[in-house]
Amino acid sequence: MDVEMKETPKTENRKRKSTEHNSENVKIQRVMNTRKIAVPIHRIAPLKESWMKIFSPIVEQMKLQIRYNIKTRQVEIRQPQKELTDSDASLQKAADFVKAFILGFEVEDALALLRLEDLFVESFEIKDVKTLRGDHLSRCIGRLAGKGGRTKFTIENVTKTRIVLADSKIHVLGCYKSIQLAKRAISNLILGSPASKVYGNLRNVAAKVSDSL
Questions:
Q1: pLDDT digits (tens, 9 = 90+) for 34-92
Q2: Residue 188: enclosing H or E segment and its boundaries?
Q3: C-alpha closest to that of 106 among 144, 179, 56, 54
Q4: Residue-level pLDDT at 27
Q5: Which of 38, 162, 188, 210 could form a disulfide with 109 if both were Cys (CB 3.0 to 4.6 A apart)?
Q6: Is this model's pTM higher than 0.70 or not?
Q7: For residues 118 and 84, what is the distance between their CA atoms, to the nearest angstrom?
């Protein structure tokens, strides 16, 4: 005689809970394996123009997935489920690379964040050094850039950094020591030191640092 085995309500509930739990785990895993970077309106056009330069290294070198979500205006970077890694270092590097571009750095400069370990971006504002308003703030921003961008270019070359001046916000890309040198020079300019004096001090300190390395 054949006996039909029927599942009890308790067994069905356990299966349902197990399925729901697994589904939740998958959702959590997807969130953990994803980075989202908001894109301001004024950076959407540059992002479109440079998309392939950003897309290629992330997909080909870092083995990650990337897309631009038009609705949320976010760049989404995801680690494929089949890619098993011990850490999310590659995911974080890719996110830092995209963030650097969104802040205003050239793709070529931001790419260094993917290739080198000890690079990062540090941001601060003019008001963090000195409170300035109106024309005083505008003149300060002009002094930081210099005629034809000469001052900014000089600081970048001496400190081996890259600098973005975004109104009253300043972003510096480089290694820790280089960023500190650049920040000191920029802070002295904000506080009113003549550019020539800042250049002199900067070169002296940079020479001592290079000698010690």
A1: 999 999 999 999 999 999 999 999 999 999 999 999 999 999 999 886 555 545 788 99
A2: helix 176-190
A3: 54
A4: 45
A5: 162
A6: yes
A7: 24
Length of the chain, please? 213
* pLDDT tens string 104-142: 999 999 999 999 989 999 999 999 999 988 899 999 999
Bridge partner list, 172: 122, 163
Quote helix, strand, coil % in the chain, to nearest 5.
60, 15, 25
Q: Give the whole-angstrom CA distance, residue 66 versus residue 75.
A: 7
3-state SS assignment for residue 118: coil
- CA dist 204 and 1 (Å) reads 97
Instruction: List the Cα angle 76/98/34 in 5-degree steps.
Output: 30
Coil, strand or helix at 52: helix
Rounded CA-CA distance 57/23 in Å is: 32
Residue with tokens 């969130």: 31
pLDDT tier, 5 (very low <50, low <70, confident <90, very high otherwise): very low
Q: What average pLDDT does range 150-159 have in this prediction?
A: 92
Q: Cβ distance 114 to 97 under 8 Å? A: yes
Residue 163 near residue 152, CB atoms below 8 Å: yes
